[in-house]
Write a structure and sequence with these properties.
single chain; mainly beta; Immunoglobulin-like; six-stranded mixed beta sheet; five-stranded mixed beta sheet; VirB9/CagX/TrbG_C_sf; Conjugal_tfr_TrbG/VirB9/CagX; Conjugal transfer protein TrbG
């Protein structure tokens, strides 16, 4: 699809397009004026190919240095009323542009924003935040003071806890690392008659932190056909034996 410039897409004199692989981007140029096509900082230019190299002048340059160096492709038409296409290949992606020359009005510069890179950056920051949360939970705990005397029974969904332990005051339920991307099951503590009771807990990183001890609890997800994982404390096993599978 051919993507045209828009008023909302301008940042000062630069038309900023959202990058989509395979899209065709319009650039309006004018004789006697240079239009600047700015690539992503750190992106290395591999090749530039134009359909008409007789009536269009195409060059390239670099601004900045080091990791933030930015490649620029410069285009200028000889006459008004002519068109051609331009293909830019880099070490990261390929750009396709439709160039059109007109007597009045031109685009001084264009660049792109990269939604896929932005999403990857947000995901990485979220992963780091989860790791910091998990580290903050375990940083004040010592192995000698922990009780790993818990067993897991019932279903085996993708969100099944990795480990359960307590420090004598709180119970820590370690969930899989990708739990934030799935539905998180609520936790119910089982009473003396196995009746389910909601319990106050908080989520920190990939841990459920329960501010009380319990003998049995269940993680439940769904309504009609529930997926249930039961957490039971077994006081007959030593903490270290439970931890290492003894």
């Amino acid at each position: 699809a051919l993507i045209e410039p828009s008023v909302d897409g301008y940042v000062n004199a630069i038309q900023v397009y959202p990058y989509t692989e395979g899209a065709l981007y319009r650039l309006y140029a004018s004789p006697g004026q240079v239009s600047d096509i700015a690539l992503q900082p750190g992106e290395e230019l591999v090749s530039v190919s134009a359909g008409d190299t007789v009536r269009w002048v195409v060059g390239d340059t670099v601004s900045g240095s080091g990791p933030t160096a930015r490649a620029h492709v410069l285009v200028k038409p000889i006459n008004a009323g002519i068109r051609t296409n331009l293909m830019i290949a880099t070490d990261r992606r390929t750009y396709h542009l439709e160039l059109e020359s007109q007597a009045d009005g031109y685009m001084a510069a264009l660049s792109w924003r990269y939604p896929a890179d932005e999403l990857a950056g947000l995901t990485a920051r979220n992963d780091r935040a989860i790791a910091r949360e998990a580290a903050s939970i375990t940083s004040g705990l010592t192995l000698e003071g922990l009780n790993f005397d818990y067993r897991l029974t019932g279903d085996s969904p993708g969100w099944k806890p990795v480990r359960v332990f307590d420090d004598g005051r709180q119970v820590f339920i370690q969930m899989p690392g990708d739990i934030a991307t799935t539905d998180m099951p609520p936790l119910f503590v089982l009473g003396p008659r196995s009746e389910a009771e909601l319990v106050n807990y908080r989520v920190r990183g990939n841990y459920y932190v329960v501010d009380r001890l319990f003998r049995a609890a269940e993680l439940r997800l769904g309504t009609k056909n529930q997926t249930i994982v039961r957490i039971s404390r077994n006081d007959q096993r030593s903490p270290l034996a439970a931890m290492f599978g003894g």
